[in-house]
Amino acid sequence: MSDTLAGHYKSILELIGEDTSREGLRDTPARAAKAMQYLCKGYGDSLAEIVNNAIFESDTEEMVVVKDIELYSLCEHHLLPFIGRCHIAYIPNGKVLGLSKFARIVDMFARRAQIQENLTKEIAEAVEQVTGAYGVGVIIEAKHLCMMARGVEKQNSSMMSSVMLGSIRTNPATRTEFLTLVKMNK
Ligand SMILES: Nc1nc2c(ncn2[C@@H]2O[C@H](COP(=O)(O)OP(=O)(O)OP(=O)(O)O)[C@@H](O)[C@H]2O)c(=O)[nH]1
Ligand SMILES: [Zn+2]
C-alpha cells in the first residue's frame, strides 16, 4: 500500500513538471506517502480501542468541558489541511470518560478526509455513544488552507461549527453555560 501510494506521488510530481531523479526529490514519494498515511490514520481506528475501557463511575451531573483540543484534518474537497481547535462538553449520566480520550476521539475522526460539519457531528455522536451522557456539545473553530493558500485567498476567516445533543441542545441555560465556559480566559 505504501509503495503504491509512493508510486502515485511520483507520478504527481512528474505531472507537475518535476524531475523525480533530482537529489532533493529522491525520497519524496515515499515520504509523502508516509505523511499522507499519517494524516489519514483515523480510518484504522475503532472507538472501542481508542476508549480502552477508560470509563469511570461518577455521580457528578455537572457539565464537564474539555477545551482547546488542537485538530489537524484534511478537507475532502481539496485534500488540503484545515487546522483548529475543538471544544467538547458533556453532562455525565453516571459515567465519566478518561480525559485523554476526548483528544483521541477528535483525532480518530479528524485524521481522515473530512468536512468540518461532519467532523463536528461525528465527534459529538461518539462522545454521546461512549458516555451515555445527558447532553453533549462540540464546537470546532478552524482555518482551511483551501481558502487561504488558493481559491478566495482569505487569510483571516475561520469557520465555526457546533453540534449540541440531548440536554445541551434542549436546555438554553445549559447551552449558554457551555458557550460561556469555552469563551473564558480567551
Ligand atoms: N461547508 C464546508 N465547505 C468546505 C469545507 N472545506 C472546504 N469547503 C468548501 O468546498 C467548496 C468546494 O467548492 P467547488 O466550487 O466544488 O470547488 P472550488 O472551485 O475549488 O472552490 P473554491 O474554493 O471556491 O475555489 C468550497 O467552497 C470550499 O471552501 C468544509 O469543511 N465545510
Ligand atoms: Zn478545501
Written description of the protein model:
Helix content is 42%, strand content 26%. With 186 residues, the protein is of the alpha+beta class. The protein has 2 domains: 2-39, GTP cyclohydrolase I, N-terminal domain (GTP Cyclohydrolase I, Chain A, domain 1, Orthogonal Bundle); 50-183, GTP Cyclohydrolase I, domain 2 (2-Layer Sandwich), CATH 3.30.1130. A hairpin with a 5-residue loop joins strand 2 (64-75) and strand 3 (81-91). Helix 1 (2-15) packs across helix 2 (28-39) and helix 4 (99-110) runs antiparallel to helix 5. It starts with a helix and ends with a helix. The mean pLDDT is 97. The site of zinc ion (ZN) has 6 residues, from loops. It catalyses: GTP + H2O = 7,8-dihydroneopterin 3'-triphosphate + formate + H(+).
